[in-house]
Specification:
109 residues, globular, 4 strands
């Protein structure tokens, strides 16, 4: 059972995109991806709202998230959020690793 957290960062004048770019260029994203238990850490820009950036952040379990939240990287992330004056919404999902046959018919591989 994995946990995926969707975080939507919203700012003004391209701030959310600049935040994500700095997260990448500073090496913070790569460091997070290398943390034990991290399954996915990816940013996306919304086509219908360029002031919003979506982060899809997946972890093996809650313990992995707790260790990440206790790491020094969280201060870096929080400082960058302040620097770019970002506001967030958060959604959390627990995985369902099953795929009903009736749904798999609609997935093109």
């Amino acid at each position: 059972m994995s946990i995926t957290v969707n975080l939507r960062y919203k700012g003004a004048d391209g701030a959310a995109k600049k935040f994500a770019e700095e997260m990448v260029s500073s090496g913070t994203v790569e460091a997070i991806r290398n943390e034990a238990g991290n399954l996915r850490y990816e940013y996306y820009v919304a086509l219908d709202d360029p002031e919003t950036v979506l982060l899809i952040d997946s972890w093996k379990d809650q313990e992995s998230i707790d260790v990440h939240h206790a790491s020094p990287m969280m201060k870096t992330i929080m400082d960058l959020r302040e620097k770019y004056d970002l506001h967030m919404t958060v959604e959390r999902y627990v995985s369902d690793d099953t795929m009903p046959e009736r749904d798999s018919d609609f997935i093109r591989k």
